[in-house]
Amino acid sequence: MLVCSELMVIEEGSGVVVPEPVLMDAVEIETGVAIRTGRENHCEIERRRRNKMTAYITELSDMVPTCNALARKPDKLTILRMAVAHMKALRASDVSQSEGTGNTSTDGTYKPSFLTDQELKHLILEAADGFLFVVSCDTGRIIYVSDSVAPVLNQPQNEWYGSCIYDNIHGDDVEKVREQLSTQEPQNTGRILDLKTGTVKKEGHQSSMRLCMGSRRGFICRMKVGNIAADNMAVGHLNRQKQRNSLGPSRDGQNYAVVHCTGYIKNWPPSGVQMDRGADDDHTSHCCLVAIGRLQVTSTPNTSDLTGSNSNAEFISRHSMEGKFTFVDQRVMGLLGYTPPELLGKSCFDFFHPEDQTHMKESFEQVLKLKGQVMSVMYRFRAKNREWVWLRTSAFAFLNPYTDDVEYIVCTNTSAK
């Protein structure tokens, strides 16, 4: 089959352009169309391949903790490099656990063969001095709580189970906890604290992390303390009672304890586990917070600590890294004559004797370098009556557990008479 095409030619002497028919084989036309179609198909295949690769690398980036900790979205090569490093670290951890305990399990979990799951759970919760609980992110309903909530908060397990988490915390902390349970995109674009790195970042870079399963949560709130009788001989009972009573009753007469909750957003129930669900759960996403609650040591001294035999010869203070008072207990009045508000916000160096300024600055820098180790020093401090009082101070730097950076300095100040 031949196809007639037109070729534009110029007649001699006339300068007129007239079309001249040209015969073109249909096979040549079909070949050209096939070439163009093949090129288009190849481009489409390459485009789909690139999109798939980008999707897989993005998913890999969400699974690697070090990638999530970055403020900017890493490039593909960085994601692959961090993923390889993460897998090497996991493999090295599995090998070290297997060699150290004789457990050759390769499923990514570790449990001593001589312990049952129930025994291991009790050991972990006792070591953490806390309790495990699971809260529905949609409703705030507590769908699981361990029996260790009784010794920690004096609350029976059956009263917590099935109740709303907001009914068990202080009213002023409800919105904060509700924000931690939320998996929706925030309405305002502010700044958030990344608990993995301890750095403050723009929320726009990390807002997508709230929607990821496995996102970490960490917050401090006040929880109600119950009235059930605890065994006085129980391990840690006196310490828990001391920490719980540090806040004292609130205005409504209810006792509260400061609890530090850390956990992860997970799907509930876990895969392969069948649980009974109420009718109100049919339309929920079953996204839950699985967390451990532990008593948080507060900065408020206990009343018993302030009325002992040495109450007039000792007081506790807390300082910023610049030396400013951020907390002073009321016993300072008996020793130096100042009230706590008279010292808060002021630099401790303004009260040191001029001859002690140099070695106190050196001691202050040394405390920051020791990072948690206790250091003692003697010096003269100006009292409110303008007299110089000799003090012996034992100081240590408190470290942020997530960043290992110094947050403040705690000082126990005693009269050196």
UniProtKB/TrEMBL annotation:
Chief location category: nucleus
Localization, UniProt: Nucleus
UniProt KW S-adenosyl-L-methionine keyword: no
SMART domains in the cross-refs: HLH, PAC, PAS
Highest rank taxon of the organism: Eukaryota
BHLH domain mapped to chain residues: 37-90
Keywords: DNA-binding, Nucleus, Repeat, Transcription, Transcription regulation
One GO MF term: DNA-binding transcription factor activity
GO biological process, one term: positive regulation of transcription by RNA polymerase II
One GO cellular component term noted in the UniProt record for this chain: nucleus
Domain named PAS: residues: 117-188, 320-371
Protein name in UniProt: Aryl hydrocarbon receptor nuclear translocator homolog
